[in-house]
Structure formats: structure tokens, C-alpha cells
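Dear colleagues,

As part of the handover before I leave the project, I'm documenting each prediction I ran so the next person doesn't have to rerun anything. This entry is a single chain, and its sequence is reproduced below.
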Amino acid sequence: MLHARLKAGLAGALLLGAFAAPALAQDDLVARGEYLAKAGDCTACHTTKGGEAMAGGYVFKMPMGTIISSNITPSKTNGIGNWTEEQFARALREGVSADGRRLYPAMPYTSYSNITDDDMKALYAYFQQAVKPVDADPVRKTELDFPFNLPGEMAAWDLLYANGKPFTPDPKLNDQQNRGKYLVDGLAHCSTCHTPRNSMMAEESDKFLSGAVVDGWMASNITPDKNSGIGGWSEDEIATYLKTGHVEGKAQAGGPMADAVEHSFQHLTDEDTHAIAAYLKTIPAIATSKTAQPAYSYGKVSPVDWTQYEPGEGASDTNDYTDTSTTNGPLLYNVNCAACHGINGEGSDDGHFPSLTQNTAVGAETPDNLVMAIVDGIHRESADGNAVMPAFAPETQVIHTGLDNDQIAAVSNFVTAQFGRGDAGLTGSKVASIRAGAPLPFLLKNAAALAIIGFVIGALVIIALIFWVVKRSRKTA
């Protein structure tokens, strides 16, 4: 790991301040490609838990069906071992594989289109020379629902939404900010999660990085808006968050962002994480709520009167404490959360377990990330160690009896009322809705019915035209 980081650091240093990199020795080219692959977070999507690196098989559950990531090892039978550099570049920039198949935008080729020729050469060298070939296809295959499995759909989508433009430095930005722009808009593909999507699942460019729901988690607004964005964060704090996944008094990463920190951001050089922070400070601020203060500013440590819940000795031995179905929020907090986060939500003295006051997840306008942290837990390896919070949903809890949706709602309401911006007013059904993710746009939700109606109308139009032509021919005769 240390050797890899040293190589990554060397590669990152070679990149600074220059988008047209000088010619490199082959070993340096491969090392630079490895660094860029980490910046692109290739592992997260092309490696399954416990599986071979880059062998594919990761499952994307999308509104249009299930997409399985492909084997991108240099295997000549099952991977990209026979691909030329030009074919490799076309796949990354245009979403077209070597055999001409259109990829799905789960692969962020709309972002990777800005990768420079020098960086593309380095990535190709790394994947062809340093990744272990795996001669096997993923067990599962991509299965799309009707009508998304019809041929030609992705070509039309690409025509509308894949711009394919190479990176061009912005003359209004300095070198550091342009470096950040290159990473944020390209390899780091931040907009993939942080930009809302329209009814065709394309990113809404006028809402760039203003936040979106991903697998139930809220990918935060990372524009410089002071209240709903990260305008109150310093560049150092943003860079630290990318490296470690947490900043005391601000936020901690969970869900997909924790994966991004673990597999990608923690491996970037300090110069690159600061470049990302510097660029994010320059993009247009977008206010996504009417909140009067940032989420992390809510709450202060104040003692909770636990005597009403723990009167002491035998008086504490109530049925509620032995009833695993209780929806008493304070009792659920006391039993499940207080050991790590403190009875007053103050967190641990060493900061390993975060305070629940001045915490974005607790003070946010919507409690999605608080709920998802309780449901899925937190699992993150980063530059300063591991962060672990157990999952409490019945499907994921392995230690105790899990909490059902009503109980998750109850404990979340207590936490937001006591330590955040106020009672979130959650119910079990609202928790279920958050866990299900963002509601589908009308077009996606009704795509099959609309497609059938379209085919029927098209067929009727063709029949009508045939009758009209026949009738006109008879009159002419």
C-alpha cells in the first residue's frame, strides 16, 4: 500500500500545473495511469466485494433494469486485452465499446470525455500492463426492462446528452482552479451523484452539483451557497473531508460518498484535493432551500434529563426496556446509540464517534442521510483510519434485533429534535420511502405503457397511410 501511495504521489506530482505532460518512461506512465484510475474511481464499479480487481460484476439497480459492470482487465478472452488505445479512448470518451456496443451512462463517459490524450495514454498503459488479467465474465448479465432493451435507444440518448467535448482550461480560472475543474468535471465525475437528473436520466446542467438522491442517500449540494451548499466550508476543510471522509463540526461521509473517499479521494495528492476544493469555490452557488443557516450549524450540546427514562435501580426495569418493539425514541437512542455518541449527543472525546450536534446529517432540511446511516451503517476506510457504525435495519443488522421502519422513525425524530433543527416528523412509511430512493420520473415510471401506446399509434398511422395510398391509386386508375 505504501509503495502504491508513493507511486501515486509521484504520478500526481507529475501532473501538477500541466495538462500536456512531458513524455514519461514506461514505468512512470503506468504509475501515472494507476493514479488516474484511482482518481476515476474505477475500482468502485468494476470490482465486487472479495472479487478480482477490475473483473466487473458490480450490480447497478437502475430504474430501467439491472446493469452489470464489465471485466476491464487485460484478459484477451473476457476483458479489454485486445483493445487498441483508440478503442479504449472511445469507450471512455464516447461510451462505445470496441465491438460497437453502446455503453450505459452508469459508466460516466459523459464526464470522462474531457480526459486529455496524455492521461488517456497513461490509463491505457496501466490497464494493459499492471492489472492482472481475469479470464472470466461476470456471473450475472445486464438485464434491461422493456422498452429500454430495444436497439438504438442509447444512440439517441448519446446524441441528445453526450457532448464528448475535450477539456479546455477556463481563462477566468487560475492553474489550480483549472486543475480542480479538470478533475471535478472529468475523472472524479462528481456530477454523476451531485447533479439532479431529468426525466431521461440525463444531468440537469443548470443545477450543476446542487445535490441529488442516490440509493436513498442525499448527495449534498456542493455549490458555494452558504446555507444549502458548502459556502461555509474552508478549502482546507473540503480537502480534509475528501482525504478522511469527515470534518469535525461539519459532516462525515456515508453510503456512496464513503466509497468514493475509500477508493478514490484518499489516494489523491494534497495538491489535487486542494485543487478540487479551490474549483468548487468558483462554480455558481445554487440555493436549494429557504433554510436560514447551514445544516451543520444546528444544535448545541445540552444535557438530556435521562432521569425521566432511567429513574434508577428497580424503577428503571420497565417493560419498555425489554420490549424490542418499542417506538419510544429516547429509549431506543439510549439502548442503541448513546454508548458511542454519548447520552447528550456529544460524541466520543477523541472524536472517533462524531457529535450529533453541529452535524450536517442531523441538521439537514431532510433527514435522508440520518435515516440511511441508521439503516446501512457507516463503513469507511480513509487516510486517518477506519470508521464503523453498525447497521440497524433488520436486513443488515448482524448483532442484535434490528429496528423496523417505525423504530427508525422514532429514534430519528428524537435525534433531530434533541440535537438538530427539530423533530423531523418521520413516520415508518416516510422511512420506507427514503429507503426506496427518489421517486421515478413519469416517463420512466410509465415507459412500457407509453412505448406500447406509441407502437399502436404508429401502426394505426401506417395502416391509415396504406389505405390512403391504395384509395388514391384506385381513383387515379
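The CA atoms of residues 41 and 263 lie 6 Å apart. Residues 447-476 form the longest helix (30 residues).

All the best with the project,
I.
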